[in-house]
Amino acid sequence: MTTDWTTERVLVTGGTGMVGANLLRRLVALGNRPFVFMRDPARMQRLEDIRACFECVPGDIADAAAVERAVETVKPRAVFHLASSYFNPPTLSAADHMNINAMGLLYLCEALTRAAQAPQGGKIRLVAAGSCAIYTGGSGLCEDAPVRPGSVFGVSKAAAGTIARFYASRHGIETVELRLFTPFGPWESARRLIPDTILSALDGRDVRIGHGAQQRDFVYVDDVVDALLRAATARLAEPWLSVNIGGGVGRPIRDVATRILELMGDPVGLTTGTRPVRADEIWEISADISTASQRLGWRPKVAFDDGLRRTIDWFRDHRALAQSLT
C-alpha cells in the first residue's frame, strides 16, 4: 500500500475512543479525509474540533448489515479496526464482549472479503487492535506466548484474533493485529489510572488506588499511532502478522501514580489498598517488542517521563473536557 495518505480511502472503527481520536488527528494532519464508522454520532466529545475533517458513517459494529453497508459505501483500501468493548470497569456481560469484539470482527472480515472479491475490488489492508489481555501475564512476552486469557474480555479478543487470522490465511485479507498493552496520553478516559491521578491532583484530592503492585506496560499514544500507520504500510511476507505494542517495561501502578505526583510537585497524597482486588487481576505483564522493531521498524520514541509530562500538560489545559471523558 502507498504511504500517500492524501489519496487513500481509509475506514476507522472505534474512532470516538482515545486511540481512535489520536489516530484521526494524525490522518487529518497527513492530508487524509477518513471515514469513521460509529455507533452513536452524538458521542463526539473527542472529535468536535476536527468534525469537518472526516466523514461519519453511522452503524454498530455488532450489526452485520451495518458493517456491510459501511464497507460497500467507503470501498476502503485501509481499515483501522479499533472498535472494542472495554476492560475496566467489568460491567459488560460475556455476550456483550463477544458480540462487539469477536462477532464485530467476523462481520468486518466477511464484508472486506466480499469487497476484495468484487469486480472492482483489490487489496485491502486491515489493521486490528488486539489486546495483551489474551495472555495470562508475564514479563517480556513474545507473540508466541501461550494465549490463556484470564477474563471474558481477553477471551473475546483472543477469539477475534483467531477469526482475523483465518480470514487472512483463507481469503488473503492482509491483516496486522497489534496487541496493545497499556496506551496512555491525551483523550484517555477520566476513570483510568493516569488521568484519574492527574485530575485528582488538580482538584486537590488525595489519589486513591488499589493494591498498587500490579505491573502494566505503558506506551504513549503517539507511539501507538505510529505503530498503526506502520502496520498499514509494512510489507508482509504472509497475509497475517501479530505484533506486540508496548513500552517493553512493566511498571507497578503504585510507582506510576507516585511519579505523576512527583512531576506535578506532590500536591496531594497517595493512598493504596482502597479498592478491592479483581478476581481476574493480571499482576505482571510486559511486552517483548522485538517483532515490532524487526517487522514494522517501530520502537517507542517517547520516553515514559516525557509521555507523562505531555499527558499532565494536556489534562491541565483541557481540565473541564477531560473530566467528562468516558
Describe this entry's structure for a reader.
The relative contact order is 0.13. This protein has a domain at 10-185 and 220-247 and 286-301: NAD(P)-binding Rossmann-like Domain (Rossmann fold, 3-Layer(aba) Sandwich), CATH 3.40.50.720. The chain is an alpha/beta fold and 326 residues long. It has a seven-stranded parallel sheet with strand order 3-2-1-4-5-7-12, with helices on both faces. A two-stranded parallel sheet has the order 6-15. The chain has helices at 18-29, 64-74, 94-117, 152-171, 193-203, 221-233, 253-263, 290-296, 304-317, 319-323, and strands spanning 10-13, 35-38, 55-58, 78-81, 125-131, 138-141, 174-180, 182-184, 207-208, 215-216, 218-220, 240-245, 251-252, 270-271, 285-287.
Give the SSE map.
Elements (H helix, E strand, L loop, with lengths): L9 E4 L4 H12 L5 E4 L16 E4 L5 H11 L3 E4 L12 H24 L7 E7 L6 E4 L10 H20 L2 E7 L1 E3 L8 H11 L3 E2 L6 E2 L1 E3 H13 L6 E6 L5 E2 H11 L6 E2 L13 E3 L2 H7 L7 H14 L1 H5 L3
Parallel strand pairs: 1-2, 1-4, 2-3, 4-5, 5-7, 6-15, 7-12, 8-11, 9-14
Antiparallel strand pairs: 10-13
Helix pairs in contact: 1-6, 2-3, 3-4, 5-7, 5-9
